[in-house]
Specification:
With about 475 residues, the protein is mainly β. Helix content is about 5%, strand content about 30%. Strands 3, 13, 14, 16, 18, 19, 20 and 22 form an eight-stranded mixed β-sheet that branches. Strands 4, 5, 6, 8 and 10 form a five-stranded mixed β-sheet that branches. Strands 15-26-23-17-21 form a five-stranded mixed β-sheet, with no helix packed on it. It contains three helices and 26 strands. The two termini are about 35 Å apart. The longest helix has 8 residues. The chain binds copper (II) ion. Copper (II) ion binds next to loops. GO terms for molecular function: copper ion binding; oxidoreductase activity.
């Protein structure tokens, strides 16, 4: 069952130890997050109003207003992220977690961000997708000197274009992004915008991948292709919160990709349109319906749909390896290999050897294999009908007719109306025998043609 306890104000403020107390006293208190649970949306207490996003297994950074400027404080620091239940990874992040807090502002806001570096090496922050003065763009060496350990730098600019953005380092970025340094940035429109719909639910997450050997706790930062931990906001299924919607809600899902490969993000049961990218809102004439959209490396995609179909619908990366938990990629394919008489012989040499994979690997979800410390199963996640056989970049989109407008709690598993679950075929009753199927290449016989009026009413919803 999904552990999902919402909280407000549970974050505690602590001062960054390596920066002088006097210098820190003048800064906005950095808000540090200890929990990997999804926080409630942060309704803006001041400034221009907006409908806040829900950051999956994350939170929004509180700010202070200082003479009309929105001031945030990010602390770049080593963190420990619980990626899956009992699986802890040493990462680098911001304000206690990876990803760092989501920064939410409104078009036209003047924004000042203090960045304190508590990492063992220098860093910067690049504000991916922003229109800003060149010296605020955060590329070490090109736009600014890097922020040394123990120092605080200030970035200041106007949030000009509404949309879905992110932030990440542009200093030793191969290491720093492999270690989890990233966060979301949302700029809401200041007024009704012809290309930005009002939505009832607005979710955001980043795709991140890590290379962590089973039993280890620190990602291999030199890895380029062979990652084994696939995450939404540095969490792997079943530890990723579900996206919840009331039936009829218009829902926006913002996805950014900071991995080394593309991810085709696929939603079941609904069509969506890509309504925005990190370049801004997509013109209406350039939108088309999809159920899968590829999010390439460095891109952001904003999906929108009307949640009209009740149920528990899969939302996942369509690369099947990316919906696995910790896995080894050197396992031989054993499908069709007859192991009979072989296991006993091998076990004389390798006592722990066990038979697996000769009928496929679906059984692995229910296998109780001993795992090294600090890893998690390759396939996991229990559903109402048994093992879901998924891990990694997978979660559910839960649509319910009865749900409060601001209720984001997991409503539990969907209760299917009678007669709407796939079932075992146990033979036709004698009086219901259908005519034989028409042979390929021959004209259909009159007996096998359904007249339109005899068709059963269309299932599902009309468009
Ligand atoms: Cu993927």
């Amino acid at each position: 069952m999904q552990r999902r306890s919402f909280f407000t104000g549970a974050a505690t403020a602590v001062a960054a130890a390596s920066v002088s107390r006097v210098a820190m006293a003048a800064l906005p208190e950095p808000v540090i997050q200890a929990s990997a649970d999804t926080a409630e949306p942060l309704t803006p207490p001041n400034g221009r109003p907006y409908h806040p996003v829900v950051t999956l297994n994350g939170w929004t950074c509180p700010w202070r207003m200082n003479a009309g400027v929105k001031e945030f404080h990010l602390v770049a620091e080593p963190v420990v992220r619980e990626v899956a239940p009992g699986f802890f990874v040493n990462m680098w992040g911001y304000n206690g977690q990876s990803p760092g807090p989501t920064i939410e502002v409104v078009e036209g806001d003047r924004v000042r961000i203090f960045v304190t570096n508590r990492l063992p090496e220098h860093t910067t922050v690049h504000w991916h997708g922003q229109r800003l003065p060149n010296g605020m763009d955060g590329v070490a060496g090109l736009n600014q000197p890097a922020i040394p350990p123990g120092k605080t730098f200030v970035y200041e600019f106007e949030a000009r274009r509404p949309g879905t953005f992110m932030y990440h380092p542009h200093a030793d970025e191969m290491v720093q992004m492999a270690m989890g340094m990233m966060g979301l940035w949302i700029t809401h429109p200041k007024a009704r915008h012809p290309l930005i719909a009002e939505v009832q639910r607005d979710y955001a997450f980043l795709l991140a991948a890590y290379a962590v050997e089973p039993g280890a706790a620190t990602p291999r930062v030199n890895e380029m292709t062979d990652f084994n931990i696939w995450t939404f906001n540095s969490r792997a299924f079943p530890a990723i919160s579900p996206l919840v919607a009331k039936q009829g809600d218009r829902v926006r899902i913002r996805v950014g990709n900071l991995t080394m490969t593309n991810h085709p993000i696929h939603l079941h049961g609904h069509e969506f349109e890509v309504t925005g990218t990190d370049g801004g809102p997509v013109p209406l004439t350039a939108r088309w319906p999809e159920v899968t959209t590829d999010v390439a490396v460095g891109q952001m995609r904003q999906l929108e749909l009307v949640a009209d179909a009740p149920g528990d619908w899969s939302l996942h990366c369509h690369k099947s390896h990316h919906t696995m938990g910790a896995m080894g990629h050197g396992v031989p394919t054993m499908i069709g290999v007859d192991h009979q008489g072989l296991v006993g012989k091998i076990q004389k040499i390798v006592p722990d050897y066990m038979l697996m994979g000769e009928r496929g690997m679906g059984d692995m979800g229910s296998m109780q294999m001993p795992l090294p410390d600090n890893t998690f199963p390759m396939m996991t996640g229990q559903g109402p009908f048994g093992n879901i056989e998924m891990g990694g970049m997978f979660t559910t989109f839960k649509v319910r007719s009865q749900l409060g407008a601001n209720d984001y709690r997991d409503p539990g598993w969907y209760r299917h109306p009678k007669g709407t679950v796939a079932y075992e075929w146990q033979g036709a009753p004698l009086d219901a025998q259908a005519p034989r199927q028409t042979a390929p290449g021959t004209a259909p016989g009159a007996a096998s043609v359904h007249k339109p009026e005899s068709l059963p009413p269309a299932a599902g919803h009309a468009h």
